[in-house]
Design brief:
single chain; 286 residues; mainly alpha
């Protein structure tokens, strides 16, 4: 992929997606977490603690090359997004909880994502790359993630009619942008993709299914109601693949590192739909 597209186009594309996310958020979404703290804390615990450990174990088990392994850890550290809200709505989850978790997760990821990637780089040692908690890199993640969200929230606060009118166009645009970003990531690392396609598809599918399962069954084991567990499943199980791709390509400058997220961005939709059908049947039988 041309360097100018990577350095300028990808962050702008992600900014549009995150702006659309901000159009769906209000300060009340952050406050709402206090009204159902147990469900929120359990879901965030799965997202921030369990998933990186599960992903690390999968990387070791599949023997991924260092760059691919760091790319998987980057994907695991990425927060959920609007896709989780959509699937939660389709399969009767607590959408309000999803929105709150997305808001909180996007803020927390500014800190946790660099930490997890830094630890992954230190362990897998992909060349002389150093990222982690460098101020410049952390600032880039902050600008990419939170500034567009804050702008979107500001627009909704002062221009609610415009925000409602833009909701559908931005959602459709986000799907198109995601498709272009995934295609671009695959093309930029096509040689590595073809070389490791089998192992990457296997680990991505397993990771997605484990993420969805952990997000649902851990809350249920802790007596979280079914509707909130469904919301947790999609929030924990559906990561922001676009964010992972943009950070890999424009911040870390590694096309190979973006390949796990590119494959995940394609596979997560049918896998999440199948899991949603499973949850619906399970809920109707309980």
């Amino acid at each position: 992929m041309d360097s100018s597209i990577v350095l300028i186009g990808l962050p702008v594309a992600l900014g549009i997606i995150m702006f659309g996310l901000g159009l769906d958020l209000t300060p009340a979404d952050f406050v709402r977490v206090a009204q159902r703290p147990k469900a929120a804390v359990v879901a965030l615990g799965c997202q921030l603690l369990l998933l990186p450990l599960v992903c690390f174990g999968l990387c070791i088990a599949f023997g991924l090359p260092p760059l691919m392994a760091v790319g998987m850890m980057l994907l695991a550290a990425s927060p959920g997004g609007t896709t989780a809200n959509l699937y939660s709505h389709l399969f009767r989850g607590d959408v309000a909880l999803n929105i709150s978790l997305t808001a909180i997760n996007s803020v927390i990821a500014v800190v946790t994502l660099p930490i997890i990637v830094n630890l992954a780089v230190a362990y897998f040692q992909p060349g002389d790359m150093q990222v982690g908690l460098q101020f410049k890199k952390t600032l880039e993640v902050f600008l990419i993630v939170l500034v567009p969200v804050a702008i979107g929230m500001t627009v909704r606060r002062f221009y609610p009619r415009f925000a409602r009118a833009m909701d559908k166009p931005v959602r459709l645009g986000s799907i198109l942008i995601l498709s272009v970003v995934i295609l671009g990531a695959a093309l930029s690392g096509r040689e590595a993709l073809m070389q490791h396609l089998g192992s990457l598809v296997g680990i991505v599918v397993l990771f997605c299914l484990l993420s969805l399962s952990l997000g649902f069954f851990v809350p249920r084991l802790l007596k979280i109601p079914h509707k909130q567990a469904v919301a947790s499943a999609f929030e924990v199980g559906l990561h922001n693949a676009t964010l992972a791709i943009v950070i890999a390509q424009s911040v870390l400058r590694s096309p190979e590192m973006s390949l796990p997220a590119a494959i995940y961005g394609v596979m997560m939709f049918p896998l999440a739909a199948a899991f949603g059908v499973f949850l619906t049947r399970r809920g109707s039988n309980s």
